[in-house]
Amino acid sequence: MPSAPDAPVEWVAITFPGTTLGAGVAAPLAELVDAKTVRLLDAAVVHKAADGTVTEGELADESTAFDDVDGDVLELLSHDDLQAIAESLENDTTTLVLVWENLWASGFADAVRTHGGSVLAYDRVLPAAVAAALDGGRS
Amino acid sequence: MRRGFGRGRRGPGLLGTMARTAVVAGTASAVAGKVAAAQEAGAAQEKTRIQTEVETQVADALRAEAAAAPAAAPSVDDLYAQLTKLGELRETGLLTEAEFAQQKARLLR
Q1: What is the predicted pLDDT for the residue at B25?
Q2: Which residues contact B13 (CB under 8 A, 6 or more apart)?
Q3: pLDDT reading at A63 higher than 60
Q4: Looking at chain A, which terminus has fewer C-beta neighbours within 10 angstroms, N or C?
């Protein structure tokens, strides 16, 4: 059984136009895993057809391109999760949903705990938002 | 990728019922490229975000413990830390009383 995560875990939905996943992302993803930047805990695929019909799939059944990516499919993402994600997807898209542990943050997270700190909040910021903030500071 | 349990995706999931709405809204704005909407992250979104994080952590912890060590009892220290965090969120007004009670019940079930 995989060990419990001790670094931050997040999920990410990567969407592609059309009915297939972009196989070209498999090798770069494998590099992230092999470098122990992330550990994969789950993977799922959501199809949204041109007419809006949603179907769920498992990565292993969808593409052989990811066969060499090391990781677990722990089925953490539920049917309801995937349906919720599907609601915001465009029609005629194929989306890979991954759950990964940010191993790169593990050492820092340990240090924070060791020194009595805790992570109150964290969030992703769109690069465009950073650019806008920079522009605003100059004008 | 190694297939886990093959039991299907029938578990409680990671997103949490309350968080799901926010997640979808956030995803929708990202997909639509509505950067302005993302910048207007007010107190309500902050609250939802922190709550999402807590729910995710709780779900992760419970699931991981169940998966990693079926025989081991949940760590009392972890439970205490989560309860303390919930209490802090309530005191700072980030969680309402009802939300606090819901999350607490979830932790203690």
Answers
A1: 53
A2: A76, A77, A78, A79, A80, A81, B59
A3: yes
A4: C
The interface predicted TM-score (ipTM) is 0.70
CA distance A79 to chain B (A): 5
Answer whether A117's CB lies under 8 Å from B46's CB.
no
Q: What's the half-sphere exposure (Cβ side, CA atoms, 13 Å) at A17?
A: 0
Region class of B13: left (phi > 0), else alpha (psi between -120 and 50), else beta: left
**Phi and psi torsions of B23, nearest 5°:** -60, -45
Distance from CA of A114 to the nearest CA of B (A): 14
In the numeric block, which tokens belong to residue B58?
């709780």
Lowest mean pLDDT among A37-46, A71-80, B39-48: B39-48
Q: Looking at B1-10, B27-36, B41-50, which range is the least confident one?
A: B27-36
